[in-house]
Specification:
Distance between the termini: 60 Å
Structural class: alpha+beta
CATH class of the largest domain: Mainly Alpha
Oligomer: single chain
Order of helices and strands: HEHHEEHHHHEEEEEHEEEHEH
Helix content: 25-40%
Length: about 325
């Protein structure tokens, strides 16, 4: 399937953005390389920014600058492997076909029949209301603004003057990392946000020091799932995988959690690895998923908690 000339130019623009990290909408040299005006360059940068939340628009004087703040796995694969272009277009087109309207791109039926998606990064953003919430959060992050977030999880609560820091797709769901003035750092699942409003006080730039913001952003680079607690000492769990499942935890295999690290392989084929965690719920779901083929070597309190959970489950089953 031949790619439209405009589509090729947009992907070349994305390559340049990954290389340079920042692009001015008025950059004449880049516009000339791509074969169009700075007006078109600005429009294409804005289109890419609206499509992916890791690209933000910032103002530097009179200039509009587009900055790549986080290179996700999906985004990297699009740029580094041309075979992935088609499934990406198909995925986006199924979510909102109007996105490619202005560049004349259409996913062919032949290509559409190749792929089946059991999950999508856009799955929770189907309704107009969810999309509006997503856009409001994105705008708050870009412009460093407060938001009042109305959230329902078990019971309703309101995060007044919350500071949205980052939109994150993890565990097959969209989350927003926020700072609550009373509760501190939190992850909120966007699906459970009922409403979002502009706070009476708009900008938080004078309230949050740069070094505080830097600490939060550093944490966002290292956390491993929604259960990772901010500003909490890490513990280390030593886990042994039986020969039956050892290959999934062997050296150079895909990590199940970011902190997973191979330690050694035993003569019987079993594998020892470690996981770091800030609270037990951060790692126990993974361990439970692989029972009875994972065994906690240490610490004892983590193994004890797992045993208690299993006792409760077996008690309910036998009762």
């Amino acid at each position: 399937m031949a790619l439209d000339k405009k589509v090729k130019s947009i992907f070349r623009l994305m390559e340049i953005l990954i290389d340079k990290k920042k692009i001015k909408a008025s950059d004449k040299e880049i516009a000339k390389e791509l074969g169009y005006s700075t007006k078109t360059l600005g429009r294409h940068l804005n289109d890419i920014s609206s499509l992916y939340n890791s690209i933000i628009e910032v103002k530097e004087g009179k200039n509009r600058v587009y900055e790549l703040v986080d290179v996700s796995y999906i985004f990297e694969r699009i740029i580094t492997n041309s075979d992935d272009l088609y499934w990406f277009f198909d995925l986006v087109d199924r979510w909102d076909s109007s996105i490619f309207k202005d560049i004349g791109y259409e996913v062919s039926k032949k290509e559409r029949d190749v792929y089946l998606y059991k999950n999508s990064p856009f799955e929770e953003l189907k309704s107009d209301k969810q999309k509006d919430i997503f856009r409001s959060l994105k705008s708050a992050i870009i412009n460093r603004e407060y938001r009042d977030i109305y959230y329902i999880y078990n019971k309703p609560r309101v995060h007044k003057q919350a500071i949205p820091l980052k939109l994150i797709f993890m565990e097959q769901n969209w989350y927003v990392a926020i700072i609550d003035k009373e509760e501190g750092f939190r992850f909120l699942r966007i699906f459970f946000i009922e409403d979002i409003k502009n706070s009476a006080k708009r900008s938080y730039e004078r309230d949050l020091k740069d070094n505080e913001l830097k600490e939060y952003n550093n944490f966002l680079k290292t956390f491993q799932n929604p259960m990772t607690k901010y500003n909490t000492p890490k513990k280390t769990a030593h886990i042994k995988a039986s020969p039956k499942v050892a290959k999934y935890f062997d050296k150079n295999m895909k990590q199940h959690l970011k902190s997973e690290k191979f330690i050694k392989k035993y003569r019987d084929g079993s594998v020892e690895f470690i996981l770091e965690y800030t609270q037990s719920i951060e790692v126990l779901p993974l361990i439970k998923k692989w029972l009875p083929d994972l065994k906690i070597i240490s610490p004892k309190e983590l193994e004890d908690e797992l045993r208690e959970d299993l006792k409760i489950y077996l008690g309910e089953e036998n009762g």
